[in-house]
Amino acid sequence: MMPPLTFPAASLTPATYVVDTNVILVANGQHPDVSSACVTACQNWLQRIMAEGRVALDDAYAIVGEYQHKTHASDGQGVGDAFVRWVLQHVDDAARCDLVTLSPDALRGFLSFPVDEGLAHFDDADRKFVAVAHAHPERPPILQAADSKWLDWAPYLADHRVQIRFLCQAEVQEFHHHKFGC
Fold first, then answer.
1. Pick from 20, 87, 116, 175: CA 20 to 30 A from residue 151's CA?
2. Is the torsion defined by CA of 81, 87, 105, 163 positive or negative?
3. What pLDDT does 170 receive?
4. Mean pLDDT of the region 114-121
């Protein structure tokens, strides 16, 4: 079991992150197969971002639309719901949110999605997160909670300077083992 994450005092320069939707769902308790430590880790990260960080999103609001589709931002009581409300309140605030323009591509989904044979079978629905991180000048890390397929893609993404930060390492490895046997 992973201990809850703790964070240093607020920094002068907020860090920027791309937040995969499953982090929000885990923080809301909407993923029944994760530990309470995983839920706490996701909650801590979202609270840290709301307090002192920044998010990177696409300017066509595909990521925001996915967040809204899977949460109850207007009346939900979870930390994930609160994070989506925060995103909606700050989406036009350049101090808290970077909007990245993504150009569509018939083969890769987005021109900024890396060209790499190892990513050929990457989930179409998740390409927007990678495309935003890859197109952003700071290459912010993507926060990932419990989607074990990302373990296979992380080394290929790292070759393109896209970092995946696994918040629930034990769970993601266990899910990967159960799903793929290795």
1. 87
2. negative
3. 85
4. 96
